[in-house]
Write a structure and sequence with these properties.
The structure is a homodimer of 246-residue chains. Chain A contains nine helices and twelve strands. With 246 residues, chain A is an alpha+beta fold. In chain A, strand 5 and strand 6 form a beta hairpin. The structure holds a DNA duplex (30 and 30 nucleotides).
Chain lengths: 246, 246
DNA sequence: GGCGTCGCTTGACTATTGTCATGTTCCCGG
DNA sequence: CCGGGAACATGACAATAGTCAAGCGACGCC
């Protein structure tokens, strides 16, 4: 199998139109003029990764921006003691590594495929040279970066101000399309990862799910039923200090 | 007093050279060509704020990038229940609001002066027009933004992987100049804010300080003595699960 | 088709943190 | 110099989350 760079980091493939279409719809590219998009697509490196494969590791220096076309990718940090902190989880149409790629600094996190993945890598020199011809590209990159910044801020707020069960409730609510009545959703990746993403242990996640039964949530394998969305939202935003019935 | 825009948001003042010098050394400006720096300085709005004064609030739309010249500023989020989550605390030479200013989107956080402050505001139109002439500006802004991103990632890791006392230990270590032997530092702002910044209640911070006595830390008012920096670092990075002597 | 691994759940126990109440000290304004 | 209030410390208690251990069940591999 053709290993690019001779490293065991993903197998190269040739992009089909369907894959390019996904890339075009990504937050990073969708607001750029077509001409630039085509340039970027034609210089991109396309790879697929198996579940568990490493995409890059902390401290490695950044050479590309990554756009997920299919599958799920987690960004995480290892603390000196070996504890893993999941920083974010990305899927189809999302991109990461923007701010790092342009500065040639080391990644602050590691990235790993948590399911089979297809990823498009845009080499940073391509991006930089294009940016010199059109500052609009810079704005686009800033937009993506800001989205990440925003999501990190939200996570911080949640960790600091909510209990585990409440964070799980918000997680479920984000999965729902509708915003009232009942809803059924599939959990997008396994519970161990969900636990990590929400800053808790798998055991605590299990218990959080049990607790949510009281506010009309039923979990079966990776399938979740929410009987009353507003009720769940109330729970998620309620003050843990108030003695909520229970 | 001359309220700019007729709002009660800071008093305008005319910048002295000393203040401009601080601005020039800020991460945001220091790598830019002199010519651009002068343009930005000459278009900047200079204001001072009293302790407790609001600089901007969440949801307000961003119109400028902010550079702290003196004093301390906190960025925080209010959860629906009224709990406050401190996202970051900035001081002399640091800037915030870069990513938001360029997109004209609402701030995800509120900003408040926690001590008397002097702040330089660079209106975003000035920045944007300059960016169109020189994409290097975009890179500079991305650099600042990346620094914030990185610090948020570190905070997330700490919150997810360390106990309160360990976070306090890291906080103290960041305050030290030296990296071995003993050290004395002043706590830069009051303990309530430190507690917020580290994601805990003031009571927990008090207890964390007591605990740190066991690893050679003495706190007296806002003065801290660390008798052995490597020992403290070991403590901060040790695994809470291991039964560390105690 | 059996079997082992791994993800997941549950229970018992411990540790950490938040909450509430109380008391001290310090700072600021009369 | 004397209150009054805010910041801070401390104790008792409750709630929450982590740890350890055991057990279940699905999936893949031989």
């Amino acid at each position: 199998m053709g290993r690019v760079f001779g490293r065991t980091k993903g197998d190269a493939f040739v992009a089909h139109e369907a894959q390019k279409a996904i890339a075009r719809q990504s937050l990073l590219l969708k607001s750029l003029p077509d001409q630039h998009v085509e340039t970027l697509l034609s210089h991109a490196i396309w790879r697929q990764y198996d579940r568990g494969e490493t995409i890059f590791v902390q401290e490695e220096s950044a050479q590309a921006v990554h756009v997920v076309l299919a599958g799920w990718v987690k960004l995480f940090r290892m603390s000196p003691t070996g504890a893993e902190a999941v920083v974010s989880v990305f899927t189809r149409g999302e991109s990461f590594g923007e701010a790092v790629a342009l500065r040639n600094v080391p990644y602050p996190v590691s990235a790993e495929a948590v399911s089979a993945c297809e990823i498009m890598h845009i080499p940073s020199p391509v991006l930089i040279s294009l940016m010199k011809t059109d500052p609009e590209i810079g704005i686009s990159i800033l937009a993506s970066t800001f989205t990440h910044l925003h999501s990190l801020v939200s996570q911080l707020e949640q960790l600091k101000a909510q209990t585990g069960a409440q964070r799980v409730a918000e997680f479920l609510l984000n999965l729902c399309d509708c915003d009232e009545g009942a809803c059924e959703v599939e959990l997008p990746y396994d519970k161990m990862l969900i636990a990590g993403r929400l800053g808790m242990k798998p055991e605590s996640l299990s218990r959080a799910f049990s607790r949510l039964k009281a506010v009309g949530v039923k979990i079966n394998r990776n399938h979740a039923e929410i009987s009353n969305i507003p009720q769940l939202r109330d729970y998620a935003d309620s003050d843990p200090a108030d003695n909520w019935g229970r």
